[in-house]
Amino acid sequence: MTQFLIDTFIKNNEDINNLKVRESYGTLSSLVGIVLNIILFLFKILIGTLSNSISITSDGFNNLSDCATSLITFFGFKMASKPADEEHPFGHGRMEYILSFILSLIILFVGFELIKNSVLELINPSGITFSLISVVVVLISILVKIWMSIFNNTLGKKLNNSAMLAISKDSLNDVIATSATLISLVFSSFTSLPLDGIMGIIVSLFVLKSGYEIIKDTIDELLGMTLDKEIVDKIKEIIMENEIIIGYHDLMVHNYGPGTHFGSVHVEVDSNSDFVTVHDIVDLIEKKLLEETGIMMTLHMDPINFDDEKTKYYYNKMLNIVKSIHPNNHIHDFRMVLGETHIKLIFDLVVPYNFEYKDEEIKDIISEGFKDEPNKIYIVPTIEHEYI
C-alpha cells in the first residue's frame, strides 16, 4: 500500500535529494495523516461520549492533535523545500529539524494533558458503559495507527527525515494508548478497580517518554553530530586513492538539513609538487566527493617538506612520543624552526575527547621526550579534537 501511494502521487520518487520530491513526500505523509486522524477523532468522540469513557475521549483528542501535527508537517515541508536565497545561502533544510522539535513539544503537551485527566479519573472514577461497537471502533483504530506508523517509518527512513520518524513513533504511541483503552473498555465490567484512570496514566508515561526521545534526537541534530562511519570512510577512501595526496587532517562536515551538507578538509601534498597539477587533482576530488557522497567539500592544500632529514627525524620522534601517550593521538602541520641556540617544533596535536591529560601536562610529557637532544627543543603544540 505504501509503495502504491508513493508511485501514484510522487513523480521521480527515487530522487530523494531533490527538494520538490522531498516536498511531495511530505505532502503525501501530511494528507494521509490529516484524513485518517480526522476520521478517528470523530468516531472516538462519538463512542467515548456514548460509553462514558475518559480514555476513549482522550484518545480521540490525541488524534485531533495528530491532525494538527500533520498540518504543521505539511507547512514545514513547504518551507524546508524552499531553495537557498540571499538571507539563507545554505537553504532551508534545517526547518525539518525545527519541525521535529515542534512535534516533540506537542507530544509532550498531549502526554501531560493525558496524565492530568487520568489522575482525575483515578480520583473520581465515572465508570464505563461497555458496547460491542466501542470495541470494534477501538480495534480498527489500532490497526489504522499500526499502518500509519509503518507508513511514516518507511518514508522517514527513505528520506532520512526526522519529522516523519517522529510521526511514526507518535503513531506507535497511539497504538499503545489505544490498546490500553481497549483493555480498560473490555475488563472494566469485571473489576471495581478504576482501570480507565490506571491505563490512562500508563499510556501518558509512554507518550511522555516518546516526546523526550524525539526532542533529544532533534536537539542533537541541531547542535551537530558526527557523520555515519560509512560516509566518513567513503570520504577518506576518495581522498587517499590519489597517490599525490600524502595525508589529510581537519576533516569537518556541517549539516544544513537532510541532503544538504558542506564540508572542508586539509590535504597534505609534497611541497616540491607542481601546484598547478595538484590544484587540478584537488578539483577532481571535490567533484567526486560531491557526486558520490552528496557533500560539497572544499579541499585546502598543505605543502609538506620531508626532503630535509632533520625535519623527518624530529617528525617521527614526535609521532612516536604522542602515540605513546595515547595510540589515537596524531599530529599534522608539523614544521621546524631553527634558532641559533635552539630548535622550535610547531605542530597540531589531535587528541581524543575526554582525554585524561590537560594541555600543559601533554606539553610537559612531550618536552621530557626531547630532553636528551643536543639542542634545546621548544615544543609549540596546538591541541585540538577531531570533528568527525
- The helix content, as a percent range, equals 55-70%
Q: Please state the oligomeric state of the protein chains shown.
A: single chain
Beta strand count: 6
- The number of domains is 3
The end-to-end span amounts to: 39 Å
Low-pLDDT runs of 5+ residues are none
Which of globular, elongated, flat, extended, rod-shaped describes the shape? elongated
Whole-number mean pLDDT: 86
CATH class of the largest domain: Mainly Alpha
Give the name of the CATH superfamily of the largest domain. Answer: Cation efflux protein transmembrane domain
The biggest beta sheet reads: 3 strands, mixed
Characterization of the model:
The protein is of the alpha/beta class. The protein folds into three domains: 2-223, Alpha-lytic protease prodomain-like, CATH 1.20.1510.10; 229-303, 2-Layer Sandwich (Alpha-Beta Plaits); 309-384, Alpha-Beta Plaits (2-Layer Sandwich), CATH 3.30.70. 62% of the residues lie in helices and 15% in strands. The chain has helices at 2-9, 19-51, 54-80, 95-123, 132-159, 162-187, 195-223, 229-240, 275-293, 309-325, 359-369; strands at 245-255, 261-270, 295-304, 330-338, 342-350, 376-384. The strands form two sheets. It has a three-stranded mixed β-sheet, covered by helices on one side. Strands 4-5-6 form a three-stranded mixed β-sheet. Helix 3 (54-80) packs antiparallel against helix 6 (162-187). The longest helix has 33 residues, at 19-51. The two termini are 39 Å apart.
